[in-house]
Design goal:
563 residues, alpha/beta, seven-stranded mixed sheet
Length: 563
């Protein structure tokens, strides 16, 4: 007999569960491929390109209920055409179908659900290059960056969500036995049942749809909740491929494929808002600008909202013993993927009097000039610039680059950068503007794209006060501090805790996601999982055990004779 999904993937799943419990980093998919080999394969692959191109200009079939027609919402910033037709389904029908599928999925239990989730990830892993191409041509990310955000690293991030959800599900005991403190301590028994919250909605983001979307999708599935996936209209294909694979795996296992569905519509229909406020939707996952996160928390009152705000990524500069490394790191972080990655610094807070370095005292003017030079060197070669920047896909980014330049002296102007292979791709160098600390109305606005502000403050203490206040109010995905003073580092740690933000200290080459040193789940860790289910208990009198009859006289005599 062929083993079930949990038995097939037990060893892999349990290894990740153990790693989480020990606080260790376990990345099975990345370790299996090797990132260097994977990047090289991304450059030379042919099969993935053929498969990807076979999707273009054809209806993307999913077999979902409530189909009303077809819709096209994407266009490649690299000029690849034609676009793809997706099914446009009635949102109410998708939610209703998910609700009908929920009972069987709940009855499947956490072991089968986790096993099938790992099977979905296994199959997605075999299509990593295809997914990378889908991300590349919808978000504008450079190809190698798209592979990192859509391939094994994203699958490892999802696998951690699966393992965390499975571990928390297993903590719920199936049977209960205890004695009542009343009525003579009569024995009682009962059961504990993990009850999923209900239909889950994943609101996709336009720039990192898989990296940001996978944790919520898989955490909901493993805890028993069906998922409606509503991609951003600009980047549908990566999540559409994911939904198709999930539906195939579920159907093969005898479950309803409507446990995972895709909701696509024209942007003006605002399908994600309609779904988020549907009374039957009980979970909403979202990563993106704080404004829509706030809208969800105000209007999706019937649901548990897991909103991961991008916010105001902030860097505090106090002092450094590697000035050139600091400048290079800030330049790269400002350029990477046209300012859409999680490490893009928006606000760089530096004392007006300047700061000490291993090369002597540096002023704000020095830092601004050196940052501009570092950006120009980084982007000076077109092929290298194309690998770093990626193409702009949104008019709001172009507008932000124009608008932000009006608020202060421009230390580095944003300008077009030619792409060596795609002459019509819109690549832009980052914009760096100097502001005063009093310009809070400018730098507390969340600016899309490669926009950074060099903000002069009264002191490092003032910088930390601004960090604490602005990030606590507007959110951020990370904060960074550069200092050679242990007291400053300790104060920065306290400020980050007060603001509730991840902190990195004295790291010049920031990772693609500073919150993922251990593939950290978005939200608040365990509560990101446990908020997706409730535990319902039942109790009853334990049935009386059969009375033991008293021994007869003959049985007593026989026992004494043996002695």
């Amino acid at each position: 007999m062929r083993p079930g999904p949990y038995e097939r993937h037990r060893e892999l799943l349990q290894s990740v569960v153990r790693a989480i419990a020990a606080g260790e980093c376990r990345r099975p998919f990345t370790e299996a491929t090797g990132q260097d080999a994977a990047d090289a394969g991304m450059r030379s692959t042919r099969t993935a390109g053929k498969v990807f191109r076979s999707l273009l200009g054809r209806p993307f079939e999913l077999g979902q209920p409530g189909e009303l027609g077809r819709v096209r919402t994407e266009s490649s910033p690299y000029g690849l055409a034609p676009p793809i037709d997706y099914p446009c389904c009635d949102p109410a029908e998708l939610v209703a179908a998910a609700g009908r599928a929920a009972a069987g999925w709940r009855a499947a239990g956490p072991h089968q659900r986790a096993g099938l989730a790992v099977e979905i990830l296994r199959r997605l892993n075999t299509r990593s290059h295809e997914l990378a191409l889908a991300v590349h041509h919808t978000t504008g990310q450079p190809l190698q960056g798209a592979f990192r955000a859509a391939g094994p690293r994203a699958q490892d991030r999802a696998l951690e969500a699966v393992a965390q959800a499975f571990a928390e599900s297993e903590r719920v005991p199936a049977d209960l036995h205890w004695k009542s403190t009343e009525r003579g301590g009569q024995p009682l028994e009962g059961t504990c049942t993990l009850v999923p919250r209900g239909v889950s909605l994943l609101v996709g983001c336009p720039d990192f749809p898989l990296w940001n979307g996978y944790p919520g999708l898989f955490a909901s599935l493993v805890t028993g909740n069906p998922v409606v996936v509503a991609p951003h209209p600009r980047s549908v294909l990566p999540l559409a491929i994911t939904v198709r694979v999930a539906r195939q795996v579920l159907a093969e296992a005898g479950h309803s494929p409507d446990l995972v569905t895709l909701a696509v519509a024209e942007p003006e229909r605002q399908v994600h808002r309609r779904l988020a406020t549907d009374p039957a939707v009980r979970i909403v996952d979202y990563t993106g600008p704080a404004r829509f996160a706030g809208w969800l928390e105000r209007h999706a009152r019937q649901a548990a909202v897991f909103a991961n705000r991008t916010g105001l990524n902030t860097v505090v500069v106090d002092s450094t013993d590697d000035y050139r490394g600091l400048v290079r790191g800030l330049a790269l972080a400002s350029c990477r993927c046209n300012g859409t990655v999680r490490t893009t610094p928006q606000n760089i807070l530096v004392p007006e009097r300047g700061f000490s370095t291993d090369e002597g005292h540096r002023t704000l003017r020095d830092l601004g000039a050196d940052l501009g030079d570092a950006v120009d060197r980084l982007l000076g070669h077109p092929a290298r610039a194309a690998k770093v920047l990626g193409a702009i896909t949104a008019d709001e980014v172009r507008g932000a680059l124009t608008d932000a330049a009006r608020y202060g002296p421009v230390l580095h102007a944003s300008g077009p950068v030619p792409h060596p292979e795609h002459p019509y791709a819109d690549l832009r160098s980052p914009l760096l503007v100097r502001l005063r600390a009093s310009d809070e109305r400018v730098y507390t606005r969340e600016w899309p794209g490669p926009v950074s502000f060099l903000v002069g403050t009264d002191s490092t203490s003032h910088s930390l006060t601004l960090l604490r206040r602005t990030v606590a109010r507007h959110g951020a995905l990370y904060a960074s501090v550069h200092s050679t003073d242990p007291l400053v580092l300790a104060a920065a740690g306290t400020a980050a805790l007060d603001a509730g933000v991840h902190l990195v200290e004295n790291l010049d080459d920031l990772p693609a996601d500073p919150s993922s040193a251990l593939s950290e789940l978005p939200g608040s860790g365990v509560s990101f999982v446990t908020g997706r289910f409730r535990v319902v208990r039942s109790r009853r009198h334990a049935p009386p055990s059969a009375p033991v009859p008293a021994p007869t006289r003959l049985e007593v005599d026989a026992a004494l004779a043996d002695v």
